[in-house]
Amino acid sequence: MERIETKEYAKDAFEEFCTDFDRAAALAEKGYIFAMLTDRIEFQKTKGEKLNRELLFRKGLEIRIFHEKGEAKWFRASMDRALRFRMRLDDEQLLADPALWWDEKQYLDIDDSKTISSLKEEGYAWATGAGRYPLPLQNYKNAKIQIRNYLKEDPDTGALSVEDWRLVSLIEGEGEDAKVY
User: Fold this and answer.
1) pLDDT range class, residue 1, cuts 50, 70, 90
2) What is the pTM (predicted TM-score) of this model?
3) Which of 54, 88, 95, 150 sits in a 20 to 30 Å window from 70, CA-based?
4) Which InterPro entries does the UniProt entry name for this protein (predicted)?
């Protein structure tokens, strides 16, 4: 089955965080980093990233490094708590059984009228009725994010429920013209 690794960092475990972050980034060479900090969102390609590790460790609420085969995720419920870590890597056995997972695609919230010049000039997309966020895509029209839901079966009722989920990829365009990154 898939490989899952979890841990909780001590509040002063900056070096351990950096080691795990660099390891996850190396595994996801053709992936992306999505980070929600207390004061901003960072979203960029893994290859060539230059994120400030200390800032991520001090201000990160949720940080995800994702690619087609897995995701590393750091998270905490509030800033007074230590970061927790979960790495999830898919394998062929898991992917061969569609009763264990389900993929969905969600459109990104993008206001076309504000994003046209902003994305080219600054690399930011504007959300409808809200702020802006960095978008590591050139073609924002119909941009989507692919999400993988991991399912578990209730032993008493047989009902399936989502026990975990992760980011998989970014998608530009529609239909046969769609590009998956």
Assistant:
1) low
2) 0.89
3) 54
4) CRISPR-assoc_Csx19
